[in-house]
Amino acid sequence: MDSLNSFSVFVQVAETRSFVVAGRMLGISASAVGKSIARLEEKLGARLFHRSTRSVTLTAEGALFLERSRRILAEMEAAEQELSHATSAPRGRLRVSLPLVSSLILPVLGEFMATYPDIELDLDFSDRLVDVIEEGFDAVIRTGEPTDSRLSARRLGTFELMLVASPHYLQRCGTPQTPGDLRRHTCLHYRLPHSGKLEAWPLQPSPGEAEVQLPISMICNNIETRVCFTRQGRGIACLPDFSVNQYLANGQLCRVLPEHAQRRNTFNVLWPASRHPSPKVRALVDFLYPRVFSTQA
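The structure corresponding to this sequence follows.
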């Protein structure tokens, strides 16, 4: 620690160009500053400053040593902050933006509340493209690959988009055999909140078949409506697997065109980039990572 104190004194003198000012900022006398610099120079075997009655300037060796000293002090400060964060209990308001997929997220967030009672969750469910930093969110959960360089990210898992319908609907209207057959069916669509466009279905046309223009029978901006309507036999919808797995398992829904309609996507948790995220953000990220998709297994 004696050496670290010497580094601090040296950096302060280098930045202020004055033993007196450096001493005042460090809370020690100018004489103590001079003795510290002299001991450091003796230990290093190099002169760090040119001294005169009017000025204190760095030598070439001093300039080189200043760069290294700043790095050492920065690393020590970072280590102290990291240790402080590691030992402090997560607490306080945690503002999180989440997509409209409550069936996937809510059970895990309920467990999180029980595990961290000192954290106040402030949840904003929306599929719009939020600006995490400008809008003051501590973290967001979103689909797709991260593109904002200001954010750190951790992948929570992957899911598959698939076409589904109820057995009753398929008995009544027939089962599509090719993507082109969808032109004669009731199609339930999702509107993308950031663009206002309809979400494209992940269709792979049969060889020689033109791109399919899907009928528009219903448009909504959430998952629950499309799941409800497909279970009621109102049409065919494109939905993420986690929202329909239980209904596929119990026979309330069936996959449609599985060989022609499949696409994988990812869920990520993102937060403002920092070498030392706050304990509450770190607690959320570490808690979500192993649990979100395990609840769907």
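The first strand starts at residue 49 and ends at 51.
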